[in-house]
Design brief:
This protein has 179 residues and is mainly α. It is built from three helices and two strands; from the N terminus they run αβαβα. Helix 2 links the parallel strand 1 and strand 2. The radius of gyration is 20 Å and the shape is flat.
Length: 179
Amino acid sequence: FANVADAGAAAIAAATATTNATTIINRFLAAGVRVIIVGTYGYGGTVGNPYAGDPDSIRLALMTTATNLSNLAATNPNMLKFVTMVGTICDASGSFLSSNYYGSAGSDVGVHLSGWGQYLAGQQEAAALIGWFGPAAAIRYPGVNYVADPLFTKTASVAVGTVATNITIATNAGTGQNA
């Protein structure tokens, strides 16, 4: 969608993406595999972004594709589940909600989810899995997280490829040995 520059191009891009996704989804369905379709995370780019397209038109193409795939999922709810990110990761226009994407440092223009955004998206996806398969049978990690900010939401730099800062790791006395 990087080169989508207007509403006409957005419609063509969305139709192409929907057709390609539908082809892949139908191959899974033919094999009896359930499919979870995750809606678009949105796009936080603004004018001056590194993509040639218009940011609003890119968002339109993304959201149109998400709507098309949601409609597809509604045709076979026993085998298809659509997980929307609207209201969690992005708003109805496709713009990222605050703190859900990298971009404040300027090295990423709102394409990649932050740790917090990934966590929120994972919660939505987990709900879909639980809806089909039920909750996990047991606690998988009964330990303690010793990182005060495990999602790195308070780091000084929030750009892809940078080193996280402002991290405090708590310590705990313990012994261990190699087996």
